UniProtKB/TrEMBL annotation:
Keywords annotated in UniProt: Amino-acid biosynthesis, Asparagine biosynthesis, ATP-binding, Glutamine amidotransferase, Ligase, Nucleotide-binding
Natural source organism: Paenimyroides tangerinum
GO biological process, one term: asparagine biosynthetic process
Catalysis performed (reactions): L-aspartate + L-glutamine + ATP + H2O = L-asparagine + L-glutamate + AMP + diphosphate + H(+)
Protein name per the record: asparagine synthase (glutamine-hydrolyzing)
PANTHER family: ASPARAGINE SYNTHETASE, ASPARAGINE SYNTHETASE (GLUTAMINE-HYDROLYZING)
Enzymatic class: ligase
Top-rank taxon, per record: Bacteria
Site (Important for beta-aspartyl-AMP intermediate formation): D356
Length: 602
């Protein structure tokens, strides 16, 4: 895992170094800068495979030069295929395999890759730059393009300059979701390349071409029996874990009290010849603590386990760190414990397996229960539901649910709220970039899972994990984000995954082979922290100092009246509006951190 940079803007080497220094934590092992023709390449290396300097980047092969971030897990298979064709290799890295693969197959190499990646390849003969991002959007890719000039980077901060203008549309979307989804960024004229897409910059013609090479497909259910599907899934998960254990540095696994990390760790332990090192954060508040369950998992699986008990009030001290490494406003409060977990993990290993992505494909979140309930509620005619909603107070969550015209409205409400904080409501961005989820399946639960994958997984979960791990120079790998696992899961009938009120049914069935069911079949707490209480207590003074009338009025499209009502009700402990308040609070802190004043927003 690394940080990449490339531009044809004529910056000096000192200027490029200054840009890379802002994200030095992504690759502390080596900084490479190369000027070639009209381009300047930059690379920050976190050495994982082939630690020798021969694999440093930028890497050159004939007329091609690459900067690459990520891991190609099946690179040995591709390498063997290329060797049979007649190619020779000078390193044992996946970087060289990727570059030679592109030299031979061109952009068709993308169909062969299984990994997490963001890369840019310059062809000095055609004067074109070809870039791509992995299917699930695990690795970030930001870019600027205007009038033939371009600049790309793994993070946003190096691309920001004095003329960068805050995007009012991005702020409106953030207020609904708590993050800025691709292809938007918080700044105008800086974009994110969407997952499963490539972009080619033709420097002669001064054109850019964006193409999609992968997407979710309409669901075709398998004819396999449940036992056949379970066995195939188990084999697939074993392979997904195994190829993610290739490393020339120390490797461990995150282990919470949940199903996904337990299954990944159990499989890894069964494959490894050595004890796997595992890591858990424990909380002083039993409502949020899973450490005791994780320790039981560790005892049964046989790992070398480290539990770190922290005080919940330690986390708000990490706020400044979060604002520093998350390039844009980001309101997922679980980023705070994620930062701390990775900081602890770095003391022991450089690569960590994780269970991220299991909930999306195997129906694990609580909102899947809500979708099931709405299927019954929709039987009430819409006109009657509207009438019922008028009888409820504004603070009742059921009011907005009753107003949903369709299942799609309800599904989207799950991810973007009811836009109550906005003066002008719009779902234009969702319609343009994410509405294709509606045509993938007739099942509302599968539709929800698909929007989970396309919207939330990339823009929230993957961003959280990437920034928290890279801020501590840790590489995180999740077998559940293997596109083969995602594609296979979508062919399984819903009741293989969500049965009799049991989420992740088939995963739990596989986990029984490693851990007794009575131990793992407990409610999942996640990485929850007491934001609602903090806002009323420890953070209250700072909250009120930052959320002044002048500041709130300067935020584009924020319905100041509704927000202030919610803030008052929350502080009086009458209604929990912590999600909305936290979003606005983080936005204001981020604006302050980035020296964005009221005039810049008005």
């Amino acid at each position: 895992m690394c940080g990449i940079y490339l531009t044809n803007i004529p910056f000096s080497e000192d200027q490029v170094n200054e840009k890379l220094d802002k994200i030095k934590y992504r690759g502390p092992d080596f900084t490479g800068i190369l000027k070639k023709d009209s381009l300047t390449f930059g690379h920050l290396r976190l050495a994982i495979l082939d630690l020798d300097a021969r694999s440093n980047q930028p890497y050159v092969y004939k007329n091609l030069t690459i900067v690459f971030n990520g891991e190609i897990y099946n690179f040995l298979d591709i390498k063997n295929e290329l060797i049979k064709i007649g190619f020779e290799f000078e390193t044992t890295s996946d970087t060289e395999v990727l570059l030679i693969g592109y030299y031979h197959w061109g952009k068709a190499i993308l169909d062969k890759l299984n990994g997490m990646f963001a890369f840019a390849i310059y062809d000095s003969i055609t004067n074109k730059v070809f870039c791509a991002r992995d299917r699930m959007g695990v690795k970030p890719f930001y870019y600027f393009w205007k009038d033939g000039q371009f600049e790309i980077c793994s993070q946003l901060q190096p691309l920001k300059n004095k003329t960068s203008k805050i995007s009012e549309e991005a702020i409106s979307i953030y207020l609904c979701t708590g993050y800025v989804p691709s292809p938007y960024s918080i700044f105008e004229n800086i974009y994110k390349l969407q997952p499963g897409h490539s972009i080619e910059f033709d420097l002669n013609a001064k054109k850019q071409i964006i193409e999609q090479y992968w997407n979710l497909k309409p669901v075709e259910l398998t004819n396999l029996t449940y036992d056949e599907a379970k066995n195939q899934l188990k084999d697939l998960l074993f392979d997904a874990v195994k190829i993610r254990m290739q490393s020339d540095v120390s490797l461990g696994s995150f282990l919470s009290g949940g199903i996904d990390s337990a299954l990944v760790t159990a499989i890894a332990s069964s494959i490894s010849n050595e004890k796997i090192k595992t890591f858990t954060i424990g909380f002083d508040d039993s409502k949020y603590d899973e450490s005791k369950v994780a320790e039981k998992f560790s005892d049964i699986i046989g790992t070398e386990h480290t539990t770190t008990i922290v005080q919940t009030n330690d986390f708000y001290e990490l706020l400044n760190k979060m604002l520093e490494v998350y390039d844009e406003p980001f309101a997922d409060s679980s980023a705070l414990p994620s930062l701390l977990l990775n900081k602890i993990t770095k003391n022991y290993v450089t690569v960590a397996l994780s269970g991220d992505g299991g909930d999306e494909s195997f129906i694990g979140y609580n909102h899947f229960f809500s979708i099931s309930k709405f299927n019954k509620l929709k039987k009430i005619p819409y006109v009657f539901r509207i009438g019922l909603s008028q009888l409820l107070p504004e603070t009742n969550n059921l009011k907005s649910v009753l107003k949903c015209k369709s299942e799609n409205d309800f599904i989207e409400r799950t991810f973007i709220g009811n836009q109550e904080l906005l003066n002008k409501k719009s779902k234009y961005w969702l319609e343009k970039y994410y509405s294709d989820y509606r045509g993938f399946s007739d099942s509302n639960i599968q539709k929800t899972a698909d929007l989970n994958i396309k919207l939330w997984l990339e823009n929230d979960s993957n961003v959280k994990v990437d920034r928290a791990s890279m801020a501590n120079s840790v590489e995180t790998r999740s077998p559940f984000l293997d596109f083969r696992v995602v594609e296979f899961a979508r062919t399984l009938p819903i009741d293989f995954r969500f049965k009799n009120g049991t989420t992740k049914f088939i995963l739990k069935d596989i986990l029984k082979d490693f851990i007794p069911e009575q131990i793992f079949n407990l409610p999942k707490r996640g990485f929850a922290i007491p934001i609602a209480d903090w806002l009323r207590n420890e953070l209250k003074e700072n909250l009120l100092v930052n959320l002044t009338d002048d500041i709130l009025k300067s935020i584009p499209n924020l319905n100041n009246k509704i927000f202030k009502e919610q803030l008052h009700l929350h502080l009086e402990s009458k209604v929990d509006y912590s999600f909305n308040i936290w979003r606005v609070y983080i936005l204001v802190l981020w604006l302050n951190k980035n020296n964005v004043n009221e005039d810049d927003l008005s």
